[in-house]
Amino acid sequence: MNEDLTLKKQCEPVHFQSSARSAKKSNDFFGLKSIRHFFQFVRYTSRSVQQLQRDYPHVLFRASGFWKTYYTLTGWSEVTEMKRYATSGHHLEAMKSAGKLASKIQTIMFEAAVPPSWREAKEKLKAGKVISYR
Q: What residue ranges do the domains of the chain occupy?
């Protein structure tokens, strides 16, 4: 999997400092119902990523995925910013359409001083909230 795909999804980048101060991270999984939804997913994701990069350029964003399975990881220093992003603009539109495109979405928030590896992030995600769609 390409660990630095520029697909749009909920992710939050952070200024990571060498201090012991930790930052909020969000790790998400998005499973497409069908590959025929891929182009709609990319459209929503691209717009959401553009919103993130425009409004929150300091946030860490990573995405990975292939075929029908996609992951995002974001890092935020302020939870209020993360909530504002998640409930506004293109990201909100994307989340409203999730039930049409996804079979399952899984998400978790946690604190860490540095971004985890993809292996660590996927392991943490197992304890996350799951939303299943028909």
A: 23-132
Helix or strand (DSSP H, E) at 51: helix 38-55
Which residues, 6+ apart, have CB-to-CB distance to 94 below 8 Å? 8, 9, 44, 45, 47, 48
Q: What is the mean pLDDT of residues 70-81?
A: 90
pTM of the model: 0.79
Q: Which two tokens stand for residue 1?
A: 């999997």
Cite the beta strand spans of the chain per DSSP E: 23-32, 60-66, 69-76, 102-112, 129-132
18 compared with 126, residue with greater pLDDT: 126
105: amino acid identity, one letter: I
Please state whether 92 falls in left (phi above 0), alpha (psi between -120 and 50) or beta. Answer: alpha
Check: CB of residue 104 under 8 Å from CB of residue 126: no
Any idea which architecture 23-132 has in CATH?
2-Layer Sandwich (3.30)
Could you tell me the CA-to-CA distances from 117 to 64, 97, 107 in Å, in that order? Answer: 12, 29, 16
